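Onboarding guide, step 5: your first structure request.
Type a short instruction followed by the sequence, for example:

Predict the 3D structure of this protein.
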Amino acid sequence: MLAYLNFDYRHKYTNFVLVIFDAETHAADLEFLIMKAHFLSFVICLSLSVSLGAVSFPEYSYPKWLEEAVIYHIYPSSYMDSNGDGYGDLEGIRSRLDYIKSVGFNTIWMSPIFCSPFEDGGYDITDYYKIDPRFGTNTDLVNLVKDAHQKGIRVCLDLVAGHTSDKHPWFIESATGDKNGHYADYYIWTNGKETKPAKPSPTERANWVYNDYPRDGYYLKNYYNIQPALNFGFYQPNPEHSWEDAFDDPGPRAVRQEIKDILAFWFDKGVDGFRCDMANSLVKGDDAEFHGVRRLWADIFSWKHEHYPETIFLSEWSSPIESISCGFDIDIICHNGCGNTMYRDIMYNTLRDADKVTGIYPSKDCWLDKSGKGRFDTFVIPFEQMYRETRGHGFPCMPTSSHDTWRMNRNQRSTLPELKTAMTFFLTMPWVPIVYYGEEIGMRSMDGAPVVEGSRDRSAERTPMQWGPGETAGFSTADPSKLFLPVDASKTRPEVAAEQADPSSMLNWTKDLLAFRAQHPAMGNVGEWRMLSDPMQPYPVVYERSGSGERFVVILNPRAAAAEALVDLDGKVVPVWGHTKALTVRKKSGKTALRIKGTSAVICQIQP
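The system replies with structure tokens like these:
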């Protein structure tokens, strides 16, 4: 058997795989791998006697409740407007808790709701301790959390730890140049503007900015110019750069304490966890092994585990072995990951503008496309390693989409069978499901939606939730011209009200699938998983879920044409969920032949 170690997940942008094999026994396997692994830059071959250093995970683990969690990601401005001002708010979300529970979600993650000028959709914060008036008040959040808990729903917020708005009072004081001010070293400033510092590494997503502030120096930003980076220090400060603080210098130490204070403030109000924005980039000048950021998160998580052990942290990192070994409970495998294209090769059927900036180009022929030209190996080979190494410590999770990522319903992927097949993949893998609002009804990406609040082309996935008929789709009582973003005006747009009454709808497919997952632990977050079909044969994909004395097989065929896989299976294969009439099972060459019609998904139970 070959063992894979994909160095995308140990070294930021290195793209090669280490294959451990016995040259005499596995010569044929090696030849096959070299032929098939053309998506990798290098293949290094060593004997089985080579030993690799094991990744070290924290002694503590995730809270037990995470094993049954199903997360619903809400972009608050777009979900439900309770007061008719055209923007979604916390009271609106609270009014929809029964709906959220009815679908099968038991955890909410909300994008940022703290005070902000919204020059980057709320990811530019001016007060971490106060809810923005757009969304309500701190009391409104407490009431939302209280009601959610009574219904068995947990609530997670979004922590933008890496930067603030340049309009934050911390930055304003820091920019005055008063070196004795409390916030003087909360940010990273050069001493004067005469010599511009070298541009940081592209992997740090940062750059230097000069404005005419009294401090008269460059400051380090993280993304937009209006997002100055908070000072968590440098991994190895350059002695020639006096502005580079070490981990335990006063500035970084004060910022770490501030982060703990923010967390404690909201945890004490009942919040159950946080998703951390740009989690791997906080310490500047870090090395390929993330020693600097590991030290940072070790400090925060040891404190968190002592005082708030039942809370969780999700990381925006896309490198689960690294992030979970740092102490995160979930790592979100998303479009902007550490040098990998796993999500993009599964989901993107065109490139978007942001890809031209990063230089990370996915295949235009994604796996979830009826053309049948996509690949699954570029996802599943690294995922197998992630799953194996993090099992029992945390969860590598891939969301359906997000506030930054196009919805499943986009371009040629728009029919109900396609969307149902895609949702089946996201809800049957061994992870904590993360479903973006509106995906459960099949909302489409609204390409061409107006650019608002720094959204660029991301407005497409931030349009208002479609609750029912009317000019505002039940989202708001405001005049349509006053809405945060326009609703889908299509006569065939999906709506919650209509889909609740339609047994064959996307909503009921999602609801029934989540219920099936909850009823069978083998299909859940901690049920065992193994790939059965050949990763190099992307259609159909077949994998097994097992546990608690049950075994299931998931068969997925996103392409329009029928497909067949030969797999090793003992026992009787009985279709029990999904497009059950689309599957034909027979014995062939001593194996089980699973033939499935196009754009179909079936779950089978394996009986003795």
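Each response can be followed by summary notes, for example: The first strand starts at residue 3 and ends at 6.
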